[in-house]
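Reviewer 2 asked us to include a model.

Predict the structure of this chain.
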Amino acid sequence: MADKLPISRRKFLATSSSVAAGVAALSVNPSIQALAAPQSSIKPATIDAEQLIASVDKIAPSGIEQGRLSGSTAQQLADIPIAAAHAEYKALASGSNIRTLEGVDRFAPSLYQAKQSNIAARIAGISEDGLRYTDYTLETQIEAVWAETNTASILWTEKVGLSIAGEPDPHVPPAFYEIRTHLTFLQRDGAGWRIVADDPQFRNRAIATRPHSMTGDKQNIARAQKQLTSPERSSKGTSSQSRSSASHLVRTPRVLLDGREIMLASGTYNAENAASYAQANAYTADGTGAGQTGFHDFGDNCTNFISQCMQAGGWPYAYGFYQYYDAWWHIGDWWPNGSWTWAAAENFYWFVYYSGRGFYLSSVWDLWAGDVIEYDEDKNGNINHAQICNYRSYDGTCYMAQHTDGYAWKPLSDILAGKDWWCYAWGLWTSF
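Predicted model (structure tokens):
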């Protein structure tokens, strides 16, 4: 992995305007206010789109110093990815017979093909669960626009609602929405602009903290835990999503870590309470202010949210040094806020393993409400995202919830469509 530039993603977000403030609060560079106007005499910049995607920490493409824009010029540039988003969702909601995007000229050719493939994969993915999207709504907010003569970077947030059909379970709502932040790169192409790269999960990034040591290998541990796989649980035709305490065996393992025996906190876990918390708080901002979750905002809150759900389900704190795998706790806005296992996906993985509170599921499709899935999206051995199953329908469809960016009731078949990720699915013991 290439070394990061001095400007980190978090620092960049801290210096940008908030969603609510919009472009009006951004500083203006008068010398580049006419950038959105046609300038056919300007030679297009040379940008490697794959390089941009691989190193999205670069705020200005190719290291170019870009000026911050506001007003109508910023809006004209931001309208390009927003129009593209409308085209994508229109295609997604048009059904299985639609495989094309409107406005081909908005995208660089390689990105256009990738968008097409993604839409087709999502349609095919949910169709395996007997589902289809039928309509969409889209609200957008510009956070910031930067531009240079030939390039532009747009930070914007979308709230997209998707109507869903085909689910016979009356407990599943007919629509859900998700909020996510994009960092989109534009390149001048003759008299116009094209989208050359887009990171639709700009704020969905792992907190870069790891415990004092790394012991064990995930794949070897997975093989070693074969004996701990879950009891038979039907994936289809279930009449209820509830799990009795007898559906999981009680397990109290003797665990050694760095040559010392870990004192395991015993307790119980109510999966339904955890899932209910996920449904109720998927769109609630983290923080200790009014209307927030009451938990510290770590910036990247996917695992922070999972830990909140676990606490709502009854997990007791495991006190210990904040960097250790066998510690799991949160104290609010006083440093260090909580253990690393509370808010970092990789660390949470090791806590679940060493604490004995969970067991590997043989398939991601075996998730039930209150179970957790973690992802290594880069397949580099470091888990960088986590979600909770907030409901499993009568027909066995898994619906997921997460923070950063927030949603609930999104089908797992949509989330994983076309993805080549390493997945780690945890079933959680009701008693430990």
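The two ends are 39 Å apart (CA to CA). The CA atoms of residues 225 and 232 lie 16 Å apart. We have added this to the supplementary material.
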